[in-house]
Specification:
76 residues; mainly alpha; 79% helix; elongated
């Protein structure tokens, strides 16, 4: 899975982001397993997957913060 730009990730819905995070975590688990048995050809993919997860979780957190801020304005 190629890395996705943050601007493209910000366009996704929360549900789509959560699905991508789950899929990438599953991919990371498989990559780690391959690395442990010596079958991983692209070693850099492990760190790329970790960064991709962090990037998506950061954007998910931004969306949650924005949602909380909007709720705070509505209730004030």
């Amino acid at each position: 899975m190629p890395t996705t730009k943050p601007s493209e990730l910000r366009k996704l819905s929360v549900a789509e982001l959560q699905k991508r995070i789950r899929d990438t975590k599953k991919e990371l688990m498989e990559l780690r397993f391959q690395a442990s048995i010596g079958q991983l050809e692209k070693n850099h993919r492990v760190s790329e997957a970790r960064r991709e997860i962090a990037r998506m979780m950061t954007i998910l957190g931004e969306k949650a913060e924005k949602h909380r801020a909007q709720e705070g304005v509505e209730h004030a």
